Amino acid sequence: MPTDLRQRRSASGRALIGLVVCLTVSLAAACETPNPRPNLPPSESDLVLLKPGTLCQRKTDFLQQHPQSSLTIKPWGTGQELMLPASRSASHGDESFFFDDDGTLVGALFTFSSGLDLDPYSVLRHTLTLLKPTLEFYLSVANFAGKSAMDSSSLYETGDEKTTTQYLVISARDRPTLLQASVTIDPYVRLFSPYRREFLNRLRQPSGVQPGQQVDSQGAEDKEPFASLQQFARGQTAQLSYCGTQSYDIAADAYRKSIASGFTNKVWLAEAHHKFGQSLFGLGQYEKAKAEMLQSLAIRPNTPETLNNLGSTQLKLGDKAGALASFEKAVTLRPNYAIARFNLAEAVEPTNPKRALAEYETYLALVEGVPDEADRIALVQQRVKKLKPQ
């Protein structure tokens, strides 16, 4: 079964959600082992916006806590946004909760259009001083008493192993005031930046634009179709068990839809076919999985991860020669690709034990000190001992 491995967090954001899904031949083989994660940036806060465990909540459970009559409900791509207005929310801000196609809470946005003074929240203020802003810009804010029409604002990002929290703060060097905060599971992080144009529009002051300013040009917009990005994130969530239950059926459905929605960037499109192939592998549909991985390589050739996973699929189909060629190419393209080295060693061991020994030893050198590889390291050490001349 696929192994759930996380890539390292980047403080500057993610151009593509690069969580690696593993295809296995034996003992969780065939997937890249990431380097050990560095210490995450601090995330302590005494401002509680979302109760622990609320993310991944089912919409039916959420509606039991928040009567539908108190909410404004509108479409969010193929999902829904349920908004609790500031007049009824515990945070005294507009609270928006975003649910995917499957009725799972994947992110939340808190908007304080009049600003939330952070002076009473010493822990969060200290956390912000330890973080480097991911973005700084001038922003026009609606209903913001005591501030100029345009003021300096900063976007901060922090989080843990599975979630990301972002804070949009104005006058960070003076008296920090929170304008927006978002909390999301990682696959959806790019869809929940407070710098997204549709979220900034909830803060803007249309009448406060000064001559020569183009306030409405602020904010990020997706270059790829929203539906494709949303479905890709849904596939990641299902395939990597972000909400507790792994589902290859949902993942396959999501990746198929992400492709159909029309990625224009070949990196995104190739990765969608690759991930679709991985979910089909998990469903035991090996011929279809192979076809998707070959399609991925046709769009973006010489991608080591795709070649490695293609090799695993070829082994399942009994094509040992094809699998060996795929693993060989993967390690040629990326000599320090530890899991491909392991897979190559397994593939050649029956016919070329000397080569297998060399590949196993290379694998051990590459993963030394990686805790996630402890079980496989123990297995390889046994095989090395058996293969070495006595």
Write the layout of secondary structure elements.
Elements: H1 59-65, E1 72-76, E2 79-84, E3 94-99, E4 105-117, H2 122-130, E5 135-140, E6 150-159, E7 163-170, E8 177-185, H3 197-200, H4 226-239, H5 248-260, H6 266-282, H7 286-299, H8 304-316, H9 320-333, H10 338-348, H11 353-366, H12 374-387
Antiparallel strand pairs: 1-2, 2-3, 3-4, 4-8, 5-6, 6-7, 7-8
Helix pairs in contact: 4-5, 4-6, 5-6, 6-7, 7-8, 8-9, 9-10, 10-11, 11-12
Describe this structure as you would to a colleague.
This protein is elongated. It is of the alpha+beta class and about 400 residues long. An 8-stranded antiparallel sheet has the order 1-2-3-4-8-7-6-5, with no helix packed on it. The chain contains 12 helices and 8 strands. The protein has 2 domains: about 60-215, no CATH class; about 225-385, Serine Threonine Protein Phosphatase 5, Tetratricopeptide repeat, CATH 1.25.40.10. Helix 6 packs antiparallel against helix 7 and helix 10 (about 340-350) runs antiparallel to helix 11 (about 355-365).
